[in-house]
């Protein structure tokens, strides 16, 4: 069996991966620099977008 990576991660995980605080993450989400999906009250961010965002050097 292969190791599966998540497609979407929660805000806590996104902050940890990017090395930023939650406040800055939500600024990026609000400005549209990072895409988000809302499922109920939960905010989820595509892992691919986090990787691209970090590669662009915006963090």
Could you describe the 3D structure shown?
The chain is an alpha+beta fold and 59 residues long. It has one domain (8-55). 46% of the residues lie in helices and 19% in strands. The protein is built from 3 helices and 3 strands. It has helices spanning 11-18, 22-31, 47-55, and strands at 8-10, 37-39, 42-46. The protein has a 3-stranded antiparallel β-sheet with strand order 1-3-2. A hairpin with a 2-residue loop joins strand 2 and strand 3. It is globular and about 35 Å long. The mean pLDDT is 92.
Compact summary:
46% of the residues lie in helices and 19% in strands.
How does the SSE layout of this entry go?
Blueprint: E1 8-10, H1 11-18, H2 22-31, E2 37-39, E3 42-46, H3 47-55
Antiparallel strand pairs: 1-3, 2-3
Distinctive features:
59 residues; alpha+beta
Order of adjacent strands in the largest pleated sheet: 1-3-2
Choose one word for the global shape. Answer: globular
Provide the residue-averaged pLDDT.
92
Report the strand count.
Answer: 3
The tally of helices reads: 3
